[in-house]
Design a protein that fits this description.
The chain is mainly α and 111 residues long. It is built from 2 helices and no strands. The longest helix is centred in the middle third of the chain and has 51 residues. The mean pLDDT is 77.
Length: 111
Amino acid sequence: MKALFQLLGAVAAVAAAGLGAAVLAKKLGKECPIKVTVDVAEDAENAEKDKETADKTTAAYEAGVAAGKAHAEAIRKAAEAEAAEAAEDAAESDAPAADEPDQPPQDKEAE
């Protein structure tokens, strides 16, 4: 996100500088030194290719998101299984042995 905001800040700074240059050029009566051109796909063939490329990109993105969610779910399940196993081990170690009856401790001094 930081990189995105840095990029947007840089774009805004360039746009502001260009606007400032254009305003100064108009006030001074000169032609604006900045020319902006935008290529628009006017061919139906190019438009189709662009649409196909966009569809492929969308499909790849959705597949990546699905794979990421599946991976996160697998990690969550593995963590839950590990936690359950640790809880079982802790419960087994806390339980007294079945062959040893519960007896109060004997005082050696009393004997």
